[in-house]
What we know:
The chain has one domain. It contains four helices and no strands. It has helices at residues 3-27, 38-62, 65-93, 98-130.
Amino acid sequence: MNILAQQFIRILVLTAIIIGLILGLGALGLNNIIHEDIWSIVIFSSLVGVGVAFVNMYFVKKGSQLGLVNVFLATTAFRMMLSIIFITIVFYLGLENAQVWIANFFVIYLFYLVFEIYTIMANLRAISNEGEPQ
Length: 134
């Protein structure tokens, strides 16, 4: 399986874990910390996560060591800009219980960001190990 397919599967697993956590919190009766529109946040974050992962994996696969940090920073900034646009649109359309929604958004945002950092580091480690003599 190629690296892009593996990354896509990893993002699907992360999304499934997040969905499981949301459903688990709901089953425990903690609905007051879960906004009713959390599913739009999950869908947005997973789609952006897939897009960012594909861009990052493309450049990792290309092997451009010098530009990988710049690509990672650019995709992180792009993710942040898309998130700001998404938040602005949601607030413009009207939102009840905004504090819970914002808290939910940033928890999910941070899950995907940490996951992205982890996968980039793992891929860079694999690339640096390829270049070492055995």
